[in-house]
């Protein structure tokens, strides 16, 4: 079989320039991680939400400007070290790390509310069960107040059914197994290849991967979907040279 590595390396370089470059992410350094801009003089902030299947939840937040990285896991329950097949009383969650100077917690709450049906009583659509319940995990009184305020607003839109969303302080967040991270992106091997088939830990840390995960699920804004598609088409059309025989 021909080695795709030359083509992959060339494609990665171009994709990083075209897609990540436009969003301010840095080129991969010696370590190879494609990371976003970390706030100077301040740590990134973290928000955790449960809103149904975490495959989709992760994609719902991945394309927002100011989001540095996303990952999925389990929280809200009492069982230690939950696993996908045995998560007991935990809920499937997304952890969003973001630059608070670029995006406010309130904007994350807006995305939370519009990305699922908080009136769905025991899950989300076909995903039925306690693990798909709706939760805002808060850290401190400001977040708790904002969460309660937006929940009341959501409830006021229609009083004929109840908003089921729980608001609770974040306890332990247990990261999910690697195969659940960037799940939507992993369904598109071509996109993974364009990124240079990054190892799992770099995929989790990568701002570009978070964005492409959202793109793969078609959850970026329409104009962004279009822009990314045309950049990818451009790269694909160039037909990078592949060594076939030697
Ligand atoms: C909660 O907020 C404090 C500061 O407001 C921060 O230092 C801490 O890391 C936060 N915890 C989590 C889990 O995000």
Overview in brief:
By secondary structure, the chain is an alpha+beta fold. The chain has helices at 5-23, 54-61, 105-114, 141-156, 183-186, 189-194, 200-205, 207-216, 222-238, and strands at residues 45-51, 67-75, 91-98, 123-124, 127-128, 134-138, 166-169, 174-175.
SSE layout and pairings?
Blueprint: H1 5-23, E1 45-51, H2 54-61, E2 67-75, E3 91-98, H3 105-114, E4 123-124, E5 127-128, E6 134-138, H4 141-156, E7 166-169, E8 174-175, H5 183-186, H6 189-194, H7 200-205, H8 207-216, H9 222-238
Parallel strand pairs: 6-7
Antiparallel strand pairs: 1-3, 1-6, 2-3, 2-8, 4-5
Helix pairs in contact: 1-9, 2-8, 3-4
Pfam families: PMSR
Catalytic activity: [thioredoxin]-disulfide + L-methionine + H2O = L-methionine (S)-S-oxide + [thioredoxin]-dithiol; L-methionyl-[protein] + [thioredoxin]-disulfide + H2O = L-methionyl-(S)-S-oxide-[protein] + [thioredoxin]-dithiol
Domain Peptide methionine sulphoxide reductase MsrA: 46-187
Task: Report on this structure.
The longest helix is centred in the N-terminal third of the chain and has 19 residues, at 5-23. The chain is globular and about 65 Å long. The chain has helices spanning 5-23, 54-61, 105-114, 141-156, 183-186, 189-194, 200-205, 207-216, 222-238; strands at residues 45-51, 67-75, 91-98, 123-124, 127-128, 134-138, 166-169, 174-175. The protein has 246 residues and is of the alpha+beta class. The strands form 2 sheets. A 6-stranded mixed beta sheet has the order 7-6-1-3-2-8, with helices on one face. Strands 4-5 form a two-stranded antiparallel sheet. Helix 1 runs antiparallel to helix 9. Keywords: Oxidoreductase, Signal. It is an enzyme of class 1 (oxidoreductase). Residues 46-187 form the Peptide methionine sulphoxide reductase MsrA domain.
């Amino acid at each position: 079989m021909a080695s795709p590595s030359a083509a992959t390396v060339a494609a990665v370089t171009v994709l990083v320039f075209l897609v990540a470059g436009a969003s301010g992410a840095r080129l991969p350094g010696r370590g190879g991680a494609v990371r976003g801009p970390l706030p100077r003089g301040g740590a990134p902030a973290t928000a955790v939400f449960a809103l149904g299947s975490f495959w989709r939840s992760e994609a719902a937040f991945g394309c927002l400007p100011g989001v540095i990285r996303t990952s999925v896991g389990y929280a809200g329950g009492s069982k230690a070290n939950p696993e996908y097949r045995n998560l007991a009383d935990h809920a499937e969650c997304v952890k969003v790390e973001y630059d608070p100077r670029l995006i406010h917690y309130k904007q994350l709450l807006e995305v939370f509310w519009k990305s699922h049906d908080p009136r769905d009583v025991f899950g989300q659509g076909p995903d039925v069960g306690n693990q798909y319940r709706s939760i805002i995990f808060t850290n401190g009184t400001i977040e708790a107040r904002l969460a309660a305020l937006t929940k009341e607003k959501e409830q006021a839109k229609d009083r004929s059914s109840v908003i089921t969303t729980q608001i609770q302080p974040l306890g332990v967040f247990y990261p999910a197994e690697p195969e659940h991270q960037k799940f939507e992106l992993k369904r598109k091997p071509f996109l993974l290849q364009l990124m240079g088939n990054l190892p799992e830990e770099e995929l989790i840390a990568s701002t570009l991967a978070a964005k492409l995960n959202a793109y793969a699920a078609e959850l970026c804004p329409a104009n962004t979907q279009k822009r990314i598609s045309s950049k990818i088409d451009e790269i694909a059309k160039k037909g990078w040279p592949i060594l076939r025989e030697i």
